[in-house]
Amino acid sequence: MDKVKQSAAEAVGDIGDDASLAVGGFGLSGVPNTLIAALLARGVRGLQVVSNNCGVDGAGLGTLLAAGRIARVTGSYIGENKEFARQYLGGELEVELVPQGTLAERLRAGGCGIPAFFTPAGVGTQVADGGLPRRYAAGGTSRPEAGGGQVAVLSPAKEVRVFGGLEHVLEYGITTDFALVRAAKGDRYGNLVFNKASRNFNPLAAMAGRVTIAEVEELVEPGELDPDAVHLPGVFVQRVVALTPEQAADKQIEKRTVRA
């Protein structure tokens, strides 16, 4: 039952090339930076990442992206990462854009064993009708203002059915080989508690991973967490890494605003 690993390197030691990953976080909040750094050090390539966004330039998943380790991204927002845009428009990266709520539900559904579901989100748009560029041809322009080169892969049309007089589009649940998440507290059994906004996509990503690895800012003994306060039960978590005080305190801010 003791799921604690001695280091982040040990915890990600069996993640290989072409693995699929669900990664928690929203912007730079709740991002498992220590696990991402350990994965970067392993040198694995061809990763297929499912995450709300792909970090920012030089931080979060942006470090893996800049090193050319990510081959495909399923996400809902890419606007804060210039390198992401360059690779996407230049044909180096395949991207599946998903409405944010749909992405959350696809992760939850996968974790609950639900293979597919219908939602009204995206009906009447290219999300349902198909035609969104997933990959541009290699060698095309990577300048965002030029809009990319020739499209090599388009998203397919999806099944649409009517329920209660309204059209709904079919979406599939997501499961991944591994999941990387960050929590404020965790015990040796893998029960996790998240702090405020850093909860975001972390529980959902954890549910979707066949092997889920959690870095925790504070490791506590079994029985110390109030069962009613647990946000994610340990049944969804296979490995736990306790962060050092320095790692736990290292929390970046995307946009800092102060009063004059």
Characterization of this structure:
By secondary structure, the protein is of the alpha/beta class. It is 22% helix and 28% strand. It has helices at residues 8-11, 33-42, 62-66, 82-89, 100-112, 126-129, 202-208, 245-249; strands at 4-5, 20-23, 47-50, 70-75, 94-97, 116-119, 133-136, 151-154, 160-163, 166-172, 176-187, 192-193, 209-220, 239-242. Strands 1, 2, 3, 4, 5, 11, 12, 13 and 14 form a nine-stranded mixed beta sheet that branches. Strands 6-10-9 form a three-stranded antiparallel beta sheet. Strands 7-8 form a two-stranded antiparallel sheet. Strand 2, helix 2 (33-42) and strand 3 form a beta-alpha-beta unit. The longest helix is centred in the middle third of the chain and has 13 residues, at 100-112. The model has no long low-confidence stretch (mean pLDDT 94).
Topology diagram in text:
Blueprint: E1 4-5, H1 8-11, E2 20-23, H2 33-42, E3 47-50, H3 62-66, E4 70-75, H4 82-89, E5 94-97, H5 100-112, E6 116-119, H6 126-129, E7 133-136, E8 151-154, E9 160-163, E10 166-172, E11 176-187, E12 192-193, H7 202-208, E13 209-220, E14 239-242, H8 245-249
Helix pairs in contact: 5-7
Q: Determine Rg (CA atoms, Å).
A: 19 Å
Largest sheet: 9 strands, mixed
Number of helices in the DSSP assignment: 8
In sequence order, what are the helices and strands, one letter per element? Answer: EHEHEHEHEHEHEEEEEEHEEH
Secondary-structure-derived class: alpha/beta
What is the CA–CA distance across the termini?
52 Å
Range of helix content: 10-25%
Mean pLDDT: 94
β-strand amount:
25-35%
Low-confidence stretches: none
